[in-house]
Design brief:
Elements: E1 6-12, H1 17-27, E2 33-37, H2 44-51, E3 54-57, H3 66-80, E4 86-91, E5 94-96, H4 100-110, E6 114-123, H5 130-138, E7 144-146, E8 153-156, H6 157-162, H7 174-184, E9 188-199, H8 206-226, H9 236-259, H10 268-281, H11 286-315
Parallel strand pairs: 1-2, 1-4, 2-3, 6-9
Antiparallel strand pairs: 4-8, 5-9, 6-8, 7-9
Helix pairs in contact: 1-2, 8-9, 8-11, 9-11, 10-11
Amino acid sequence: MILDDVGVVAIGRNEGARLIACLASIKSDTRNMVYVDSGSTDGSTAAAEQIGAIVVTLDLTRPFTAARARNEGFAVLRALRPHIRFVQFVDGDCTVVQGWLNMARAFIEQRADIAVVCGRRREIQPTVSVYNRLCDLEWETPVGEASACGGDALFRAEAFEAVGGFRPQLIAGEEPELCVRLRQTGWKIWRLDAEMTRHDAAMRRFGQWWVRAVRCGYAYAEVSQLHRASPSGIWKRENLRAIFWGGLLPAGICVGALIHPAALVAGLAYAIQIFRIALSRGPTSSQSWTYALFVVLAKPAEFLGIITFWRRKLHGEVATLIEYK
């Protein structure tokens, strides 16, 4: 069934065949498609137009962020299709699962208190690399009322507009930040027990995973600083954990080892933390141990991201993207 009051905003850059698959997965559900391109050189804009999407090309003389791209795509969609009531945001490296838009729209239509509804994002090739698998595990979150959504979600247009959309300057973490503002004004976020999108992380190297973790730490610092006075306390614990495990504890061990080698025993705290996390997820599963190991390994990268944010802020530098692929 064609959904006349649902629009889709897809964003991307040089996604190639993945973008074509993304837009093709939407076309059978709605004709209200906008693709926002951020400087592709692979013919993405022409391919999107051929499929039937309205193409928006960003002015790259201004700093680019995914948040800004989504906002501009939404503005064009609303200007050309003012009857739109719901908007699905999706990244160009994802495909939308058949039936998702109909299910999500039916659910949000029945719940006037809900501003955002999302489902399960799955990795297309989770077995290709441990890093792809970690992404798939990361997205396996509880269903029901949630505190935040990710980049793929169906928004109530009036709610999105009422809070001013995404903060365009954020280079990461823009979705949870927007959800904080929505919940502060009384709206709810809901996660359905349903397949929503399939994603292609395309992470095959440790360096890619590391940079992604650095970006995560940067988002922790920036978003928590924006809402430092908010009762939501968004990402305060994540900041403290990254600072302790990724900064203070290693520094303490190094300084202590200069005084006496016995200080190196404190390094066992990392093994204990890995064991504790794996135990909480089910110690009989190898995935639990893999997840636990990388959660701990990510802390120095997240700490580096936090340091990067504060260095830029103190020097008044304009934030630039931290890209892992």
